[in-house]
Specification:
By secondary structure, the chain is of the alpha/beta class. It folds into two domains: 133 residues, Rossmann fold; 75 residues, no CATH class. 53% of the residues lie in helices and 12% in strands. The chain has nine helices and five strands; from the N terminus they run E-H-E-H-H-H-H-E-H-E-H-H-E-H. A five-stranded parallel β-sheet has the order 2-3-1-4-5, sandwiched between helices. Helix 2 packs across helix 4, helix 3 packs parallel to helix 5 and helix 7 crosses helix 8. The longest helix is centred in the last third of the chain and has 17 residues. The chain binds cytidine-5'-diphosphate (CDP). The site of cytidine-5'-diphosphate (CDP) has 16 residues, from helix 2, helix 4 and helix 8.
Length: 213
């Protein structure tokens, strides 16, 4: 019997726990993992470094077309600033279009892959065998992000982080191109009252149910 590739598409808003879950699922099922947010983060950072206007759709598209996978290894992509820059360049349709092939090349590996982002189940991998929409209330997500940053020694204020989370949600959900929303066939996983182990256990059960058929 040939084993079908296992593509797991994970979407959801900022700080919902997608990245943690995606990395754990990839390790569990021994699949490659692509954090697609890094693509948008790298473009935002490269443009900002050179003092370019992030609202310039044509220029942002050029940066997306010439993005080098080596740029994803930069050490400064995970922070809050890069997240904001990412969501600004991510509104441009040309940027999104330029990144499709790279994302699909990872999803097309013979064994499958885990990808996380905002439009994986809706646009990038509409045929993924498993689609998860990982979410949590804005308050819970802001609390998690605040705690994460405090643990790293940063001085941050919960209300500021909550405002940032809400602003990013509004931008990601409100944009015309590939807005953040669950695919029709996605399973919504609300992590507000779950710890990472519980989220992982639910996700494994969902994968088992989806792949049993
Ligand atoms: O980790 P977090 O959820 O904060 O951010 P991320 O997944 O790295 O994404 C950063 C930003 O990139 C998001 O707010 C989106 O605007 C954009 N993004 C996107 O539009 N599509 C994706 N597939 C991934 C990220």
């Amino acid at each position: 019997m040939t084993q079908l590739p296992l593509v797991i598409a994970i979407d959801g808003p900022a700080a919902a726990g997608k990245g943690t879950l995606a990395a754990r699922l990839a390790a569990h099922f021994q699949l490659p993992y692509l954090d697609t947010g890094l693509l948008y983060r790298a473009i935002g950072k490269l443009m900002a470094d050179r003092g370019h206007d992030l609202d310039n759709a044509e220029l942002a598209t050029e940066f997306a077309r010439h993005l080098d996978p080596e740029d994803l290894k930069r050490g400064d992509l995970r922070g809050r600033e890069a997240g904001e820059l990412a969501s600004r360049v991510a509104v441009h349709p040309g940027v999104r279009a330029a990144l499709v092939d790279f994302q699909r090349s990872v999803a097309g590996r013979p064994e499958g892959a885990v990808l996380d982002g905002r439009d994986i189940g809706t646009v990038i991998c509409p045929d993924a065998r498993v689609k998860l929409f990982v979410t949590a209330s804005a308050e819970v997500r802001a609390r998690r992000r605040t705690d994460e940053l405090v643990a790293k020694g940063r001085t941050v204020d919960y209300d500021t982080i909550l405002a940032e989370v809400r602003e990013r949600d509004a931008r990601d959900s409100g944009r015309k191109e590939a807005p953040l929303k669950p695919a029709d066939d996605a399973v919504v996983l609300d992590t507000s009252d779950l710890d990472p182990d519980q989220v992982m256990a639910r996700a494994i059960a969902i994968v088992a149910a989806r792949t049993a058929a």
